[in-house]
């Protein structure tokens, strides 16, 4: 969903005459966040693969997926609206 919102805004702001800059701005706005979210997936994978399953049987919360506020509280629309023009300018 975040990708869809962001690409729609960057392409709209760049205009039909400047699609390449809109696509590059999309990548610019999304890269660091996507990388950070993927890292949380690696942490969960490691937690599950290294779990002591006897302890988990007693306390299943030991392997609960974390619900990180910085992930779920992010407003991709507001962020893209705020940052699109600046990012597009880098690539125009």
Write the layout of secondary structure elements.
Layout: H1 2-14, H2 19-49, H3 53-58, H4 69-72, H5 76-91
Helix pairs in contact: 1-2, 1-5, 2-5
What would you note in describing this structure?
- This protein has 92 residues and is mainly α.
- The protein has one domain (2-91).
- It contains five helices and no strands.
- The protein has helices at 2-14, 19-49, 53-58, 69-72, 76-91.
- It is elongated and about 60 Å long.
Short description:
By secondary structure, this protein is an all-alpha fold. It has helices spanning 2-14, 19-49, 53-58, 69-72, 76-91.
| Count of separate DSSP helical elements | 5
The tally of strands reads 0
For the sheet with most strands, the description reads: none
Shape: elongated
What are the secondary-structure elements, in order, as H or E?
A: HHHHH
The tally of structural domains comes to 1
Q: Give the uncertain stretches in residue-range form.
A: none
The percentage of residues in β strands lies in under 5%
Would you tell me the overall average pLDDT?
94
Instruction: Report the C-alpha radius of gyration, rounded.
Output: 18 Å
> N-to-C terminal Cα separation, in Å?
26 Å
Structural class by sheet pairing and helices: mainly alpha
Oligomer: single chain
